[in-house]
Write a structure and sequence with these properties.
Distance between the termini: 47 Å
Shape: globular
Radius of gyration: 17 Å
């Protein structure tokens, strides 16, 4: 079987963002010690992007399981995303979750850093433009958030390249 088969098997069910499919196409199993970590990160990232795309209101009714179905993410991911990026609350006597502006910004930073992690141990990518399109996020906003996280961001002909090198300079 050719190498592309694992990608087709992985992305054959459910919705996958273009930028994540492109990222997966750049992972080569035979010469990459971090390939399994990159694949796992890409799966997590795709789920988190679905959460981001669907968690647009400031309040959602329901349990983590109900919201997992509503957001089209796994029952394993939903409780963790809600724990990290939402606050349990109550609206008109119904239990649910609130999402504030600071929590949305936190979610965006996590998404952007995960995207870098999914590119491997070098923590760099030649372009975040397609990823920003999938997120419906301005590249300038993403660049600002990444700089605040300590990344080097450069505008190039091919897009906006990003790298994170240790030690981090703030």
């Amino acid at each position: 079987k050719k190498e592309g088969d694992w990608r087709d098997n992985l992305t054959g069910r459910g919705f996958w963002f273009k930028s994540i499919k492109k990222l997966l196409n750049g992972i080569h199993l035979e010469d990459n010690r971090s390939a399994s970590t990159q694949i796992k990160t890409a799966i997590l990232l795709n789920g988190m992007m679905k959460f981001h795309q669907n968690a647009t209101k400031s309040f959602f009714y329901g349990t983590p399981e109900e919201l997992a179905k509503k957001f089209a993410i796994s029952n394993d991911m939903a409780p963790r995303f809600l724990e990290l990026f939402a606050v349990e609350s109550n609206d008109r006597g119904k239990d649910g979750y609130s999402i504030t502006k600071p929590l949305k910004d936190k979610r965006l930073i996590h998404l952007l850093i995960l995207y870098l992690l999914a590119h491997g141990r070098d923590m760099k990518t030649s372009s975040i433009d397609m990823f920003c399109d999938d997120l419906q996020l301005e590249v300038s906003t993403a660049s600002m958030l990444l700089r605040e996280a300590g990344c080097n961001v450069n505008k190039t002909k091919g897009g906006t390249s990003v790298s994170l090198k240790a030690p981090i300079n703030f």
